[in-house]
Amino acid sequence: MIRRAEHTDAPAIAQLQQLTWREAYAGILPAPVLDGLALPRLLRNWRTELMRQDVDLDYGLFVAESEDGQALGYAACGATEGHESTILGDGEIHQIYVKASHQGRGLGRAFMLACSRWLVMRGLFSGGLWVVKGNEKARAFYDLVGGQYAGAKRDRFQGWQIPVVAYSWPDLYELAGIESEVPSWL
């Protein structure tokens, strides 16, 4: 099940970020970046992000969980900020991460659907995302779901320069597969 994240999800999302980043970026990002993913700092960050969701109506944060309530992945999206809109479009999918043990089961597609529908409901009809250049598995997934290469840059993260590439969807209606009423997510 994918649902809108709640304040009580902060510890689970922090643990997911630590785990999924270490799974996805081992051998891609510098080891000090992955070693620096301290749970107390991640927890503070996610508590802040969950409060942001309360005041920024364009920002959506989602969590996927198993039937027994185990967190399996998370995603975040919102309006594109600054000059990024010339590359990505109106909306940005900030993060999509799924535990390696649960990849290939449709959760990534479900997150893409949830984020694209969320953005469209807010009048953000085009969008995109940034992905670490060396993350070939994620890049293949974004190609598969119709993403178009839109550019490249270097992101600064914990003092490191990380090469990233952009994928965009000029019409999020296509990605969202909207055929009828969109759920409210409330």
Can you give a write-up of this model?
By secondary structure, this protein is of the alpha+beta class. It has one domain: Gcn5-related N-acetyltransferase (GNAT) (Aminopeptidase), CATH 3.40.630.30. The protein has seven helices and seven strands. The protein has helices at residues 10-25, 31-35, 39-55, 85-88, 107-121, 136-144, 172-176; strands at residues 2-4, 60-65, 71-79, 91-98, 127-132, 148-157, 160-169. Strands 1-2-3-4-5-7-6 form a seven-stranded mixed β-sheet, with helices on both faces. A hairpin with a 2-residue loop joins strand 6 and strand 7 (160-169). The two termini are 15 Å apart. InterPro entries: Acyl_CoA_acyltransferase, Bact_Acetyltransf, GNAT_dom. Pfam families: Acetyltransf_1. This is N-acetyltransferase.
Defining traits:
7 helices, globular, acyltransferase, GNAT_dom, Acyl_CoA_acyltransferase
Task: Summarize this entry quickly.
The protein is α+β, with helices and mostly antiparallel strands.
CATH topology heading: Aminopeptidase
Supply the CATH architecture.
3-Layer(aba) Sandwich
Question: What is the structural class?
Answer: alpha+beta
Biggest sheet details: 7 strands, mixed
Q: Percentage of helical residues?
A: 25-40%
What is the CATH C-level name?
Answer: Alpha Beta
Shape: globular
Task: Tell me the Rg in angstroms.
Answer: 16 Å
Strand content: 25-35%
Topology at a glance:
Elements: E1 2-4, H1 10-25, H2 31-35, H3 39-55, E2 60-65, E3 71-79, H4 85-88, E4 91-98, H5 107-121, E5 127-132, H6 136-144, E6 148-157, E7 160-169, H7 172-176
Parallel strand pairs: 4-5
Antiparallel strand pairs: 1-2, 2-3, 3-4, 5-7, 6-7
Helix pairs in contact: 1-3
